[in-house]
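ESCALATION

Customer reports they have been waiting on this structure for their group meeting. Please prioritize. Original submission:
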Amino acid sequence: MKRRQFLKLSAATTAGLAMPHVAWGQGYPTRPVRMIVPFGPGGPTDVAARMIAQKLSENLGRNFVVENVAGASSNIGTAQAAKAAADGYTILVTVNNLVINPSLFDKVSFDPYKDFDPVALAVSFSSAFAVHPSVPAKTVKELIGLVKANPGKYSYASPGLGTPSHLLGEQFRVTHKLDVVHVPYGGSGPAITAAIAGHTPIQTTSTWNG
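Update from on-call: job pushed to the front of the queue and completed.
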């Protein structure tokens, strides 16, 4: 995609580290540490996790290994982390979905407050709309007009149901009464790939702050 149009809106996403309730032992870590990212590879959460893992590995002398466990809008990977042994060797790297999903889904296999201890707020992202070059809109106003003039023609990709990017897209759709189809993916990486290929000409995504 040679031309990229980012139609920015004022919303934010944060990526943080959490782990099952744990009692720290002396000399931690003494073996490799698993870092679960509950989204597919290639998205901002995955990239942030891999940068953090590299630095932790260098500074602590043990391997911190990133594992992508995508599916069910991050619920699968999050539940897997919640069920891990509370020994400090499993870390969840996730975004706002940790506290959003329990209110959106009838049932999730984790409790964000009882099952996890927060470790750090690692990264913050801004949310934006990105459009494929084939979309003749350079501003949010033009995009609204285009979608209204072509009801049902356009679709937008998100990292998954209930993600901050999805909620941004739905707020945008409802506020402006747009007939646009939501297409959820298993993370920002697959959603970005779909947008670049033109399969979903509009994408709600996260961009690095700073």
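Sent to customer with the following note: Residues 1-12 have pLDDT under 50 and may be disordered.
Escalation resolved.
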